[in-house]
Amino acid sequence: MHWFEDEALWSDFSGVMFSARRAEEAARLVAEAPLLDFPENARVLDLCCGPGLFVVPLARRGYRVTGVDLSPLMLKRAEAACAEAGVRARLAAADMLAFTEPESFDVVLNVYTSFGYFEDPRDNARVLRNAHASLVPGGRLLVDLMGKEVLAGWIGRPQVVELGDGAYVVQRDTILDGWRRLRTDWTLVRDGRASEASITSWLYSGAELAAMVEEAGFTDVACHGGFDARPYDQHAGRLVVTATKG
Ligand SMILES: C[S@@+](CC[C@H](N)C(=O)[O-])C[C@H]1O[C@@H](n2cnc3c(N)ncnc32)[C@H](O)[C@@H]1O
To answer: Please, is 151 exposed, middle or buried when counting C-beta atoms within 10 Å of its C-beta (0-12, 13-18, 19+)?
Structure first.
């Protein structure tokens, strides 16, 4: 089993990844961020949608949203989040390695470091080609992850995240293969018991991810330092690559 197929990882560590604070932040971004401002009624694919942190505000804004995720548990949570918010979205279980719906979307989003999961770099390239195939001509791609340059600015010390219910998570990051890949080890301590999980994914600089996106057939490729379209420079908080299917 690949690490990303482990349901327990996404569920046990959801307090770190899918916190209420992140849900609020996603809602704010969808309402305000220029890079998430799409034409009215746009068909938006949220690839690797998780429990729907972006699906809900995107649907609330009137976009026709499809959320795709490998994890049935995450999709169940996304469904519950949509129901609670009173919005509609189509949710589908699929592997990003295989998912394509030719020329069916105006926008493909892949956010919060949901890219670079496959060990073989050709598989990660294939995800971008799938996204290209799923877009209509003129459609937009947006990939958001922790860029290599951004990570280099703060990586080093273990981080402790308090989950608010007495539980906490210790996060340790390890650079692998000469800055090609990153392993994140988590220890969750709850009710005196510890559980562990690890994520290993590819690391991309702005130039590396932009080159991959171009290689997949996209044009108009740009690197930004956040959803607010700030430059990808020493002040960047994220690496957000946008591109167009020409
Ligand atoms: C870091 S989470 C991000 C979720 C969401 N984009 C967000 O902003 O909260 C990554 C998500 O990718 C999903 N995932 C992992 N591997 C996948 C794959 N091969 N195909 C589709 N989804 C996958 C996981 O189940 C998880 O929900």
So the answer is: middle
